[in-house]
starch synthase (Chryseobacterium oranimense), 256 residues
Amino acid sequence: MPNQKILYITTEMYPYQEDTNMAALVNKMALKMHNEGNDVRVFMPRFGQISERKFQLHEVIRLSGMNIIINDLDQPLIIKVASLPGERLQVYFIDNEEYFKRKQYYVDDEGNPFDDNDERAIFFARGVIETIKKLNWVPDVIHLNGWMSSFVPIYLKTYYESDTYFKDAKIILSLYNEKDAALDKNIAEKLTFDNISGLKALDNPTIKSFVIESMNYVDMVVKGDEFLDADLDKGFNETATSKSEYVDVDSINQIY
């Protein structure tokens, strides 16, 4: 079914990340939908490992310049864009010196999770939402990949609940076996600042607990990895949300 507006929100995509199932899958899904005549956009964080020169990223001045307030602190939002190498598919990068300049993704050189991973996820989620609105581009389908993107539906159904911009968009969440890590214990205060409370994930805030929580805020949950770890599989089996077992790239448009 061509002529759909499809938004991929992801933490990984080939060739910006290599050797992971998520990165390969998002690349293939986005290209397939793009080549079939759909209007496809991809949003991801501009992690420090992504070379701006190699991939020809450039700042979009008209989209940059907004500030995202997190826990009463203003953080400038920088938007960069690039075409997927060899393709006419645009990838937008959410950037911020404080959150995404570092070379590692989620843990430091000693393997300890960053204290501000929760803030980075909030900033990414809100940055994507605000930028899409500024683009004046209303997606029909929002496909979430990667734990940071799981904050998007939570925000859409709470903080942005009275905003009708995304009211007709269908949200799909793909589940992957990502490495779990604790999130800052003060995340409850930061979410409360945005009038978000009562989440079960706040009892034990981790990367995985927020992915499981977000299953309740989407229209469909899909296995991104064919076999999920025990906690994710339990969450998948218990959710009341519509769900699908693993589907290969050739069949993804049936989900849409």
